[in-house]
């Protein structure tokens, strides 16, 4: 299938990529390795050409899954992964020292069964290590042929500019959806100025804009359970706002997920959403959003539903927010 494409650094990718995290991590019990492999191959068959993973996901198991499932089809996709956040001896760490980045990268290459990762992100900012020092280590990895391009995740416009002064940054990942608008404070404009792609993770707001959240009875280990806006007493209020979004999607002949993804694509020509799914049916549903651009009046209607502060409650619990460098919105609620 020939799909609309977008550009990330030197790579041309499908306008919608696949976030692979929930095949191993984060939203309750992940699918079996066999089902995960089936989904990854189905994604390539449908025309996805961007797969996104990280060392953290499943403690490296997500990278191993990709290595086992689709590396025989390596020429068909752009591969991205991430460092800084990692599991060492079963403990989650945040470490952007050059030694840690090298260790994580070498581990990732082994788990993926390859000698080259196309796009390699710093997963979060390590405030103890100058960004210039960390990017310098990734430049050396690029010179050694281990990676093809450098990315950043959940970082502010100021940090992006500092990193870009050391070496061109190809992509910045941030949470971005109709319901989560933090990149609009400064990151989108910085990306436009510097020629950087904005890769939008959680573009359907962790299922909230995909008809997947109805109450807060999450499975054990689901990362939404400590997020204030995803649990009571605030979730019920937020679901009332989401009901308006669902109705708008139905009026437009779209699923809620398609409306959310179409909205992200409509924001800038360099935005690339990477929804995740464990469902074969949702793979095709999501990708179809790239083939039907939204009319300007529909985009405006979505915007009216989600002004600043439309969702009640903090985006992250306090410990997770402490690792986020992306700007907060004026008046944004933060967990204590």
TrEMBL record:
Recorded coiled-coil stretches: none
UniProt-listed InterPro entries: AKR, Aldo-Keto_reductase, NAD(P)_OxRdtase_dom_sf, NADP_OxRdtase_dom
Keywords: Oxidoreductase
Matches recorded under PROSITE patterns: PROKAR_LIPOPROTEIN
UniProt entry tagged with the keyword Metal-binding: no
SUPFAM superfamilies registered for this protein in UniProt: NAD(P)-linked oxidoreductase (SSF51430)
Pfam families: Aldo_ket_red
Domain NADP-dependent oxidoreductase, residue spans: 15-304
Keyword Oxidoreductase: yes
Name recorded for this polypeptide: Aldo/keto reductase
């Amino acid at each position: 299938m020939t799909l609309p494409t977008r550009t990330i650094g030197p790579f041309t990718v499908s306008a919608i990529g696949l976030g692979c995290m929930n095949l191993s991590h984060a939203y309750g019990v992940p699918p079996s390795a066999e089902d995960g492999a089936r989904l990854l191959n189905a994604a390539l068959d449908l025309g996805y050409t961007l797969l996104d993973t990280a060392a953290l996901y499943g403690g490296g198991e997500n990278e191993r899954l990709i290595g086992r499932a689709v590396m025989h089809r390596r020429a068909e996709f752009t591969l991205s992964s991430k460092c800084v956040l990692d599991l060492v001896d079963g403990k989650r760490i945040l470490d952007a020292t050059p030694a840690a980045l090298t260790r994580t990268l070498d581990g990732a290459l082994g788990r993926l069964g390859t000698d080259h990762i196309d796009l390699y992100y710093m997963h979060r900012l390590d405030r103890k290590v100058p960004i210039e020092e960390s990017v310098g280590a990734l430049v050396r990895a690029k010179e050694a042929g281990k990676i093809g391009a450098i990315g950043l995740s959940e970082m502010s416009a100021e940090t992006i500019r500092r990193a870009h002064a050391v070496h061109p940054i190809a992509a910045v990942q941030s949470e971005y959806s109709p319901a989560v608008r933090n990149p609009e404070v400064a990151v989108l404009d910085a990306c436009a100025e510097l020629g950087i792609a904005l890769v939008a993770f959680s573009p359907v707001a962790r299922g909230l804009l995909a008809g997947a959240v109805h109450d807060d009875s999450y499975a054990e280990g689901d990362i939404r359970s400590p997020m204030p806006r995803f649990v009571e007493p605030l979730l019920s209020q937020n679901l009332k706002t989401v009901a308006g979004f669902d109705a708008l999607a139905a009026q437009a002949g779209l699923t809620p997920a398609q409306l959310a993804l179409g909205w992200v694509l409509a924001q800038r020509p360099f935005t690339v959403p990477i929804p995740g799914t464990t469902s074969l049916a949702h793979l095709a549903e999501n990708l179809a959003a790239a083939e039907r651009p939204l009319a300007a009046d529909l985009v405006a209607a979505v915007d009216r539903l989600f002004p600043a502060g439309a969702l009640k409650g903090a985006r992250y619990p306090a410990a997770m927010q402490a690792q986020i460098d992306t700007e907060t919105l004026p008046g944004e609620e933060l967990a204590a």
